[in-house]
Sequence to fold (169 residues):
Amino acid sequence: MSGISRRHLLAILGGAVIPAPAFAGHAFAPAEHFFSVEFPTPPEEKSSGLLGLSSTTYLAKDGNKAFAVFHAAWPIQGKPALMMQSMLDGLVERISGEFLSIDKTEFKLANGATLPAKRFTYGSEKVWGGGLTTVSGPHSFLVQVMKRKPLEGWDAADRKFMASFKVLI
Fold:
C-alpha cells in the first residue's frame, strides 16, 4: 500500500517541470473517509479493495509537485505502529527509494486528543517527498508531498497543505 500509485507517480515524473502557481487551496472533506485537507487543485480519486481492506488515494498535481492523501479502512483494528509501518513500506517500495528520516510524533486532534504518528521524508533518483502517517482505530492515513528532483525540501505551499490536514474521527 502506498499514498500514490505507480501510474500516478509515472504521470508526475513524465510531465514537464513547470513553475507551480500560488497555492489557491481547495477545501476537501469526503465524509466517508474521515479527514479534511486543502488541496492546491481539485484532487483525482482512486479507490480499491482487497481482502476487506478498503483504500482510497486522493491526488492533486500542481506544477512539478503532487499532493496526496491515502486513507485505508482496515477490516479489523490492528496495532497502530504496524499499520503505519505497512503504509510507509509500501510507499518507499513503489518509488524504489529510501527513507531519509522517520520521526515518531503525535498528531493532535481538534478536541485535544492525540493519535500516534510518524513524520517522514524519502528520496529516490527522481523524486523527493515527505509527509505524515497516522492511525485512528481501523483507519490509517498517509499525507504527503512529492516533488520531482532537483527540487527538495519543504516550501510554504507544502507546509500549508500538511498543516491543513485534519482527522475527523
Remarks:
- Helices lie at 6-14, 80-95, 156-164.
- The chain has three helices and ten strands.
- The first strand starts at residue 26 and ends at 28.
- The first helix runs from residue 6 to 14.
